[in-house]
Automatic annotation (TrEMBL):
One of its GO terms (biological process) is negative regulation of bacterial-type flagellum-dependent cell motility. The keyword Membrane applies. Residues 276-416 form the GGDEF domain. This is GGDEF domain-containing protein. GO terms for molecular function: diguanylate cyclase activity. The chain crosses the membrane at residues 21-44, 50-67, 88-108, 157-180, 200-217. GO terms for cellular component: plasma membrane. Keywords: Membrane, Transmembrane, Transmembrane helix. It comes from Amycolatopsis dendrobii. Coiled coil: none annotated. The keyword Transferase does not apply.
């Protein structure tokens, strides 16, 4: 994935990084500087190559300026995952026609312009590291190509394809390792690897880069035409990545309340057409405030993340879990009848009550283990408890409130006096 560290590296200055991450960042930066110095000492640049560099730099700046609004929003929304971008398009195009020092120069131009026009108050060392990963990736890919090389037959095409793969692998590996080492909390492997759909961005960027290089050398007058394709790729592939971020709660990876409500509306319409059931479950962590007050809010964040992971493990792929509030989750369960909904709710409650939760981000720095987490739940189903989204959500919320008023650690079904799982379960109280 043509990525950068973006906000992936832990917040704060360079000294805030864990020691392994600090060593990685400094080592990669040092190697990038060494590559720049040594490659510049022996490079011979022709006048034509300087002209190509100027054209590619101008095109890269024009591209970044045209999409800077999207990029600024994506920068603000990025999380602990590779921040995919299309700067690699111009860098890889340069790699095929220019000596390595000019490729590094184009990387500096791209990141320098983004710093001035896009990133704003981003932490400098993160962007320096991202640029350094581009330098290392370009250097390794250049050795595969053995200098500038345009595809002109099958053999050269395969070589260019191999160089593109190597460029991607080096860049991607350095970014993912940085994410894993820099976080003070364990980052799930799946999250660190990023969204699989972002691989389309990689293929598009590197493929368009090769196309740009060929046109630059043989038909430079035609370069404006693929620029339109570049802007379309940026909007159609990177804007959805930003939208994914805006639909996702950053602390838990669950859906946001707004997005969840939109999905509930669509699911209810489908249920009415297909005459199938649909359930809504509201879940509240009992006395969650006590965890925050006793161990601190970072520990509370760990607890709610653990709850989110356990709940996701107990539902189907077609179900949608959202973080509806600080300690409240909402679950959409399409296609289930009332009895099935209660069975799912009980399974979730039992799993949370019996699964230990380890808190490492405590205020005193000493790890603590909760024997389990007690939860109260309210369940509502279509059509029994409501025919509209508002009615269903109101019914589920009312059932949740009733469960809390009746002593917590239980499940209440809307419109029925039914209680499940009272007592005898670990409450998870700190």
């Amino acid at each position: 994935m043509t990525g950068e560290s973006g906000r992936c590296i832990a917040p704060g200055g360079l000294r805030s990084l864990p020691r392994p991450a600090l060593c990685l960042v400094l080592a990669v930066d040092a190697v990038a500087v060494a590559i720049t110095v040594f490659s510049s000492m022996s490079a011979a640049v022709t006048r034509t190559q300087w002209l190509w560099f100027a054209v590619l730099a101008a095109a890269a700046v024009a591209h970044l300026e045209a999409v800077r609004t999207i990029e600024r929003r994506r920068e603000q929304a990025s999380k602990k995952a590779p921040y995919t971008n299309l700067k690699s398009l111009w860098v890889f195009a340069a790699l095929l026609v220019l000596p390595l020092p000019l490729v590094i120069g184009l990387t500096a131009v791209s990141y320098g312009y983004c710093w001035y026009r896009v990133y704003g108050p981003a932490i400098l060392f993160r962007k320096i590291y991202s640029a350094a990963t581009f330098v290392l990736a370009s250097a390794v890919a250049s050795t595969v190509l053995d200098g500038p090389l345009l595809p002109h037959d099958l053999g050269s095409l395969l070589l260019v394809t191999a160089a593109a793969g190597v460029w991607w692998l080096v860049n991607y590996a350095l970014v993912v390792v940085a994410i894993g080492l820099s976080s003070h909390e364990k980052v799930p492997v799946r999250q660190a690897l990023g969204h699989p759909g972002d691989q389309l961005v990689v293929a598009s960027a590197l493929g368009l880069g090769a196309t740009m290089a060929v046109l630059l050398v043989h038909e430079p007058w035609a370069l404006p035409a693929p620029m339109i394709a570049v802007l379309c790729v940026h909007r159609d592939l990177l804007l959805p990545q930003y939208l994914r971020a805006s639909r996702t709660d950053q602390k838990t990876g669950l859906a946001t309340p707004v997005y969840w409500a939109e999905v509930v509306t669509a699911a209810l319409d489908r249920a009415k057409l297909s005459r199938t059931g649909l359930g809504v479950l509201f879940l509240d962590v009992d006395k969650f405030k006590a965890i925050n007050d006793t161990y601190g809010h970072p520990a509370g964040d760990q607890a709610i993340r653990a709850v989110a992971d356990l709940v996701r493990a107990e539902v189907r792929s077609q179900d949608l879990v959202a973080r509806y509030g600080g300690d409240e989750l909402a679950i959409l369960l399409p296609g289930l009848e009332p009895g099935q909904l209660l069975a799912v709710a009980e399974r979730i409650r039992f799993r949370l009550a019996r699964t230990p939760v380890v808190l490492t981000a405590t205020t005193d720095g000493q790890p603590r283990t909760l024997s389990g987490v007690s939860t109260s739940m309210g369940v509502a189903s279509y059509p029994d408890d409501g025919m509209s989204v508002e009615q269903l959500l109101t019914a589920a919320d009312g059932a949740l409130l009733q469960a809390k008023r009746n002593g917590r650690n239980q499940i209440r079904a809307a419109g029925a006096v039914r209680m499940h799982g009272v007592s005898e379960m670990p409450s998870g109280k700190p």
